[in-house]
C-alpha cells in the first residue's frame, strides 16, 4: 500500500483532516499526526521516521502555512533532502495548494532543488483531488497491486483477461457488471475476497456509510452491527447477499471508488468466472 506523509501547518488541520480521509477511502495509507501519533510519543522522533518510511510526501500549502516559520519548514527541507537522494524523475514530493497561495522558494542548497521546482496540485479546484490521485497512481502503478497477493486465486487463463475486463467495467460498470457478476452461489472464498476489496476501497465507516446511502439508499446502522469496521462490513455483505443484491453492492462500490485496484481486480475475476 502506498504510504503518504501529510505535511501541514496546524492552522490547516481541518482541510488536511478531510484530505486524510479521502486518501484512506481511495486505498492509500496516509500518515497524519492528528491520527497516527500516539499519546506519549515524541513527535520530534516520529515525524522524521514517518517521512523516511513514506513513498510520497504531500506538502499542504496555504496562505497561512507559506508564511509560517518553524517545524513545517523543517519537514519541507527533510522532503527536499530525500528528493536529492532519489533517481531523477521519480515522484516523491507533491506540493498541494489548499488555497491560492504562492509556492515558497524553499531551497535545498547542496543540490540546488527547490519546493517551487515541482508541479503542484490545486486541491481547491473541482478536479484537484482527482489529479492528485492520478499522479500518485501513475507513478506507483506496480506497487498498487502488491497488496492483492492474499486474494483468492483463479485459473491463469482468467487472470489474462483482467485488464480488458476491468477497463470495460470502469467505462460502463452498470451494464457490464449486471450481466457478468453472478447473483447466487457465492463461494466462501469469493465472499472473503469481496470483504477484503470493500475494506480496501472503504477503510473508514463514514466513507462506507456515504456510499451505501447515496448509491444504494441503504443506511448502515439499520442493517449492520459489529464491534469494529471489519465486522460491520461482513454484516453489510450478509444482509445484501440475503436480498441477492451483491452485484448491486459491487457496482455501487466501484462507482464510489473507481480507482481502487483491489476492487477492480475482484470485478475482473468475477466477470471472467
TrEMBL record:
Top-level division of the source organism's lineage: Bacteria
Transport in keyword set: no
InterPro entries found in the cross-reference section: EAD1, TIR_dom, Toll_tir_struct_dom_sf
UniProt entry tagged with the keyword Ubl conjugation: no
A GO BP entry: signal transduction
Pfam families, A to Z: EAD1, TIR_2
Domain TIR: 1-140
Keywords: Receptor
Name listed for the protein in its UniProt record: Toll/interleukin-1 receptor domain-containing protein
Organism field: Adonisia turfae CCMR0081
Amino acid at each position: 500500500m502506498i504510504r503518504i506523509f501529510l505535511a501541514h501547518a496546524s492552522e490547516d488541520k481541518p482541510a488536511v483532516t478531510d484530505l486524510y480521509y479521502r486518501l484512506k477511502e481511495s486505498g492509500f495509507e496516509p500518515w497524519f499526526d492528528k491520527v497516527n501519533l500516539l499519546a506519549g510519543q515524541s513527535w520530534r522522533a516520529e515525524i522524521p521516521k514517518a517521512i523516511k518510511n513514506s513513498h510520497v510526501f504531500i506538502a499542504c500549502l496555504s496562505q497561512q502555512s507559506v508564511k509560517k516559520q518553524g517545524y513545517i519548514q523543517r519537514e519541507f527541507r527533510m522532503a527536499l533532502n530525500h528528493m536529492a537522494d532519489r533517481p531523477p524523475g521519480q515522484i516523491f514530493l507533491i506540493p498541494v495548494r489548499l488555497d491560492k497561495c504562492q509556492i515558497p522558494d524553499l531551497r535545498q542548497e547542496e543540490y540546488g532543488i527547490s519546493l517551487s521546482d515541482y508541479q503542484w496540485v490545486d486541491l481547491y479546484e473541482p478536479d484537484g483531488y482527482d489529479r492528485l490521485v492520478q499522479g500518485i497512481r501513475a507513478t506507483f502503478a506496480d506497487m498498487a497491486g502488491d497488496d492483492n497477493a492474499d486474494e483468492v486465486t483463479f485459473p491463469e487463463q482468467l487472470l489474462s483477461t483482467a485488464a480488458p475486463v476491468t477497463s470495460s467495467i470502469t467505462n460502463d460498470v452498470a451494464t457490464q457488471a449486471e450481466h457478468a457478476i453472478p447473483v447466487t452461489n457465492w463461494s466462501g472464498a469469493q465472499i472473503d475476497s469481496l470483504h477484503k476489496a470493500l475494506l480496501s476501497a472503504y477503510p473508514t465507516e463514514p466513507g462506507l456509510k456515504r456510499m451505501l446511502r447515496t448509491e444504494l439508499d441503504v443506511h448502515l446502522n439499520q442493517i449492520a452491527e459489529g464491534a469494529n469496521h471489519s465486522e460491520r462490513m461482513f454484516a453489510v455483505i450478509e444482509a445484501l447477499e440475503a436480498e441477492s443484491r451483491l452485484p448491486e453492492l459491487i457496482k455501487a462500490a466501484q462507482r464510489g471508488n473507481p480507482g481502487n485496484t483491489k476492487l477492480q481486480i475482484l470485478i475482473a475475476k468475477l466477470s471472467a468466472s
